[in-house]
Structures are given as C-alpha cells and as structure tokens.
Design goal:
CATH class of the largest domain: Alpha Beta
Number of helices: 15
Structural class: alpha/beta
Helix content: 40-55%
CATH superfamily of the largest domain: Bacterial extracellular solute-binding protein, family 7
Shape: globular
Order of helices and strands: HEHEHEHHHEEEHEHEHEEHHHHEHH
Strand order of the largest sheet: 7-6-8-5-9-11
Number of domains: 2
Distance between the termini: 77 Å
CATH topology of the largest domain: D-Maltodextrin-Binding Protein, domain 2
Strand content: 5-15%
Number of strands: 11
Length: about 375
Amino acid sequence: MMKFGRCLLLALAAVLVVSAADVASAAAYKDEYKLDLVPSSGTGWGMGAQYFTDLVRERSGGKINIKPYFNAQLTVGKQTNAFMLLRNGTIDFACQSTINYSPQVPELNLFALPFFMSGQPDRYKALDAITNGKAGKLIAKAIDDKGGKFLCFGENGFRELTNSKKEIRVPADLQGLKLRVVGSQLFLDTFKALGSNPVAMPWSDTMSALQQGTIDGQENPINTFFPVKIYEFNKFVTNWHYMGDPTMFVVNPAVWKSFSAEDQELILKAAQDAAKYQIALARVGVDEVGGAAQLEFLKSIGKDGDAPIHDWNAEMARVGMTVTNLTPEETKQFVDLTATVIDSWRDKIGADLIKAAQEDMAAVAK
C-alpha cells in the first residue's frame, strides 16, 4: 500500500512538473506580437494579413495574439528598412512584399525583373512555378541565411501602371512622366530605361503626391491601388503586368524559436491558409485563366464576399478610368527596352537563381 502511495505521489508530481512547464511556456509568450505590412486593411494584401492573425488567435485559443500594423506604421513609412527591423527584433512578424526586403536580400529582386514572368504563356503559372519550385526554395534559404525565418509566399498581384496624363500604349508615351516607384534601384533602372522620370517614394506618401500633382502616376497591383480610390487622381490605367509581386509571411527567428513545436506548426499552417486566401483575392477578376477557380476556393471557405469585383477592367471603366490592355506586339516594345536592365542585374541577383527560375517556368509553359 505504501508502495502504491509513493507511485501515486510520483505520478502527481510528474503531472505538476509538466503543468508548470506548460504554464511557464505560455507565460513566456508575449501579450502581443507586432506584424508589419505596408498597405491599408481594405486591400487584398491587408485582408490576407488580417486573416492570418485571426486564424492564429482562433486556433491557439487566444494564447497567441498577433496584431497587424497597417500603412507601414512600424517602419514609419520607410518600408525598405522593414527587413532590418524584423531581423533585429523590433518587428515580430511580417506580411511583406518581396520588393521591400530586396535591399537586404538581393535575391528577391528576381520578382522585380521587368516582364520576366509576363512574357510566359500564363503569367500566374509562371509565378507559381517559381514560388513553389527550386527558385522559391533558394529564395527562402536566402531569407533565412540573412536573419529572417521564412514561412510561405502570398501574393499582392501583378503590377499595372496608372497616370493622370494620357493613355500609355508604347514606350514613347512614358517620356517625361513622373512616376512613383518603390525606393529600389532596380525600379529606378527599369523606368529610366523606359524614358520616364521615376521618383522613389514611400507608398504612404503617394496619394497626397498624386493629389497635389507632384507626381503623374504610379505602378501597383489593382487590388492595392483601387481600394484607395486612385481613380480620383489617375484616370488612365495600363495593364502591362510588367512584374509579379509576391508577399512573404516571415517571422523573427528568435520569436519563432520561442514557440513550442506544436504552436510553430499551428502558425505555419495559418500562414499557408492565409496565403491561399490572399492569392485568391489577388487573382479574382484579373486572372483570365484561373480566376474562376480562385473564386470557387473563396466560396469553399466562406470568403467569396471578400472579392466582390469579378471583372476589374469593367469596374475601373465604371468609375471613369480609361483601361488599356497591351497586345503582345505592344508589350514586346517594352520588353526589348528593358532587356539590358535584366542583363545588368543578373550577377546582383544571382545567375544560378535566375536560371533556376527560368527552368521552373519552362516546366509549366505550354
């Protein structure tokens, strides 16, 4: 009997030790984790980030609380400093564009190479082939090697051009236009090669600059510029799909290590689910081939109401924008003018990475 009592006491002690460890682990978690992103909550990018934080909170029973800080609040508008702030722990999580991390992770400039993916038979298949293929794995490793913890790719969309002056069909139409671009040298090189006058500017300053007329236009995915009513200042839009703009769900490595293995799995799955949702929002109404399937996916998770626009060209025309869709022959003129930009950036990005991306795209091209 005494032996049984001793065993029972030992078992109870073991349970208490485990329980204490669980309490200590939970207590080590922050009350709030900060998530960084650039646009507003009403954009597809912002909605995807919000969905991620909602999923984590719900699936962890409220134990893990991630708060999204919209409109580049955590970077005070200096969005190209975002990776440094995540790396040093000022920022815990991020749903960031590859563009904004590219100053510190040059491999990410792959996605900003002009007309690199849009020249493929299906630009969305080409983008997916890269993010899910060998090139995507190399990029994830580059982020991890430079001080981040990569979770998965989402999507902001292919970037189109808007301006207040005129319809853009040929490169000559860009001559002298002041166009807002991200503070990236690759963007400056691309738009200078096309004959425009690029102005590096944070997105948070762009709308006021358009309103005041200090710039003539900008380039961004439709689901980023339309929700902020850019059509009030820019009446012309050119669909040229000149570059893809994936987002990335990333976390500070020390913060990641602070989570239990079970919670790491929970967070990763939430990021992957949010990324699928974000990708669908970016493609409904603009992906001529796969947009309907993306809408069906949103219906399957009860989120089809989050993508009310099923034809973005018609919607932009409805609010008074002149919509220009370039033909392949017209696009080729822009491609030819920016070919030297790709050549000059090959070694900076990594010739092996570019080759891997080309092989990924070739595998799905038909």
